[in-house]
Amino acid sequence: MTGRVRLGVNIDHVATIRNARGVSYPDPVRAAIVALDAGADGVTAHLREDRRHISDDDIARLSAMLRERARPLNLEMAVTSEMLEIALRHNPPAVCLVPERREERTTEGGLDVAGGHNWIAPFVQKLKDHGSRVSLFIGADPLQIEAASRTGAEVVELHTGAFCDAVRAGDAKQASAGLTALRTGAKHAASLGLEVHAGHGIDYETVAPIAAIGEVAELNIGHFLVGEAIFVGLAQAVAEMRRRIDGARASG
Predict the structure, then answer these.
(1) pTM of the predicted protein model
(2) Is 200 annotated in the active site?
(3) What per-residue confidence (pLDDT) applies to 3?
(4) Does residue 128 belong to any structural domain of this protein?
(5) What's the number of domains the chain is made of?
């Protein structure tokens, strides 16, 4: 295996803590700067329809800060006209299209690209025309991977939640099946010319097997890092994740 795996740090839940009190702190832009200085390659933020964490102002400030540092913003968003308008206004370097339901706690499952191709493909093209590299957040399912390729998206981000949940539950059989699916899906996606990213639910215990998948070019990790930051600080949490990713790739 060759090539460094990029680390994108999702700072959504810094905003969740801020919003719990309706104040200006902790500031997700400050968190993004700390993460970059500690070894992150980019910043991910999900602007949800209900604005439960990241706000429109956060996106504007993150965009400005990251442009100054020549680092990418990966804007996660639903496939809606409102979000398309916002993305076209800010022109983030990367956009990741995700499924979104108001009642969910976090993004559950992958985008149904096969079922929504006729809506998603034009959406992808508009984003590409305005200079954003588009990723689709999907399960490691051959049907969805092939559908993603047909939309013209350059990237797929494979949903790692099932594998991570099985590891934490101590279910070795399910964990093995989940990791096999991720490995197979990554190979399939790469064979179609797609760049492969992965994310959701990754922590120190689960990151190494995913980072060791040779086709994976980027991991996006957020909730665990923000939680770990309570105990050790965000810089140390990100640096340790960076160390584990690099170690897994080198040993693989």
Answers:
(1) 0.95
(2) yes
(3) 85
(4) yes
(5) 1
